[in-house]
Amino acid sequence: MASCCRYSVLTFTLLCLCVFAILTVFFDYDHFNSFISFSSPTLESLGPKFELQRVIVSTSDQIRAVGLSGSIDDHQHLNRSTTIMRETKKRSREQALEQGLARARASIRSAAIVRIVSTASFKNDNDVPVGDVYRNPSAFYQSYMEMERRFKVYVYTEGELPIVHDGPCKDIYTIEGRFIHEMEHGAKRFRTNDPQRAHVYFMPFSVTWMVKYIYTPLSFDVSPLKQFVSDYVKVISTKYPFWNRTHGADHFMLACHDWGPHASKGNSLLYNNSIRVLCNANTSEGFNPRKDVSLPEISLKYGEPSPQLIHPPPRNDSRPHLSFFAGELHGPIRPHLLQHWKGRDDDMQVYEYLPKNKDYYSYMTQSKFCLCPSGYEVASPRIVEAIYSECVPVILSDNYVLPFSDVLRWEAFSVQVETREIPRLKEILMAIPEEKYRQLQEGVRVVRKHFMLNQPSKRFDMFHMILHSIWLRRINARPE
Ligand SMILES: *[C@@H]1O[C@H](CO)[C@@H](O)[C@H](O)[C@H]1NC(C)=O
Ligand SMILES: *[C@@H]1O[C@H](CO)[C@@H](O)[C@H](O)[C@H]1NC(C)=O
Ligand SMILES: *[C@@H]1O[C@H](CO)[C@@H](O)[C@H](O)[C@H]1NC(C)=O
Ligand SMILES: *[C@@H]1O[C@H](CO)[C@@H](O)[C@H](O)[C@H]1NC(C)=O
Ligand SMILES: *[C@@H]1O[C@H](CO)[C@@H](O)[C@H](O)[C@H]1NC(C)=O
Asked: Which stretches make up the Exostosin GT47 domain (predicted)?
């Protein structure tokens, strides 16, 4: 196993050298000079809402200096001024990038005050967010539009199959593969091949594939995963200036596997500074909602959701069951749930193993509430499945940062019950008035599109919502 790891590191180092050589010829040499003008945004320097994440060094004095010396007919001066001009060009490019973000931030801030998107002014846009499922529809809309207008992601080309540039596509961790593929082959609008023009840098490795290819089964030894991540950061931070420029703060990784957070410990700057997009968004395990992104877990065993979930029953069909859960005794919360409710009450359809003659998704589409307790990790694919089946999710987890909660008000389309209230679960659900239930279910219908994966991806779908969460971290804004 270890040799497999070394092999891939060696070969991707060679690949890097190759790419570097080509890039050096291809680009202006100055792309690879050091970036002295940036001060680094460590976590401490992440300011209040809407603050610039980086300090921009003014270059206007240098521009004036170039103008003056350019008029002097002296070779040495010309030579020097060429260098300064090159430096200035590079810096003003960085400055323009940051100024663009500052403008985006300002426009989001103004939109935030309005709170409601006037649909009249966006007649041609069917995607305008409306309703109380959004924290602030107009700020979200503005932020999304700014993202579409400006946001550029550079995807590192380093690394090779199977662990980099690919991920599972038919699995409980499917979002890893789907995101990587969409980013590398689909989202042309957001991808740039010029790292100078990027706002964020993506390291497209898959932790699920690391577990498959370089982890020794049953060893519970995650060090090969950490080593891989450490090597990867070493390669990109040596070959390119971008990592060192911000100590990784404008870089991101994405992992749905339970061990994503462990793998990210392979580099402490990655762990502390970078945007970690994780399903395992457990604040007790170092997930930091100010810089990290909570990733929805979605199980697509056959590459697509079950047709039953895609076409839930009409909204006024009655749902005979009050609530439903079926699942194994993983993690700390489910034992409580099963102990209190398994086989106890017809209103509470709670199973460890569903009887052979019963269908899981039929239960979801015929229940009013779908119970979503954490398993071994905080996230559960049940949340997305519940949303697909228009069953109101009941979140039973501790320390879980819910996906897209920067923009979505989960309380408008789900019920969150503290795990110590599990014995009172039926009472709590029965106490929700019919009118309130209808509002929650309507909320589920509104947010549904944000949890759909499409091929090709569509505006405001899951891929774009993930990207938007990253965009918010990069501009350091919360559209509330
Ligand atoms: C720059 O200076 C070098 C020597 O220092 C000289 O060979 C070269 O011709 C100069 N280039 C220009 C454009 O003046
Ligand atoms: C970035 O910093 C590391 C460690 O300080 C150093 O080894 C590496 O050469 C630097 N990268 C670049 C491109 O200068
Ligand atoms: C990362 O954070 C931990 C805990 O806050 C700290 O001990 C460690 O020194 C940090 N590492 C770096 C490289 O900043
Ligand atoms: C269900 O809703 C549809 C229209 O939305 C309506 O035509 C139908 O009568 C309703 N059925 C019941 C049983 O309320
Ligand atoms: C979240 O992290 C804490 C601390 O490690 C752990 O005790 C808890 O079990 C985790 N939650 C889940 C659902 O895994």
From this structure: 148-431
In tens, the pLDDT along 216-248 reads: 888 889 999 999 999 999 999 999 999 999 999
The overall longest dimension of the chain from CA atoms, in Å, is: 93
What digits encode the pLDDT tens for the residues 357-409? 888 888 999 999 999 999 888 999 999 999 999 999 999 999 999 999 999 99
Report the CATH number at residue 343.
3.40.50.2000
What's the rounded Cα separation, in Å, for the pair 437 and 214?
Answer: 47
Name the residue with the closest Cα to ligand 1, atom 4: 76
- Domain coverage including residue 391: 307-451
Verify that 400 and 439 share a domain, yes or no: yes
User: Which residues have any ligand 2 atom within 6 Å of their CB?
Assistant: 237-238, 241, 244
pLDDT in tens, 257-298: 999 999 999 999 999 999 999 999 999 999 999 999 999 999
Same-domain status, 14 and 126:
yes
- Ligand 3 atom closest to the Cα of residue 269 is 13
The total number of structural domains that make up the chain: 2
The residues, any chain, with a CB within 8 Å of residue 414's CB and separated by 6 or more, are 383, 392, 393, 394, 395, 440, 444
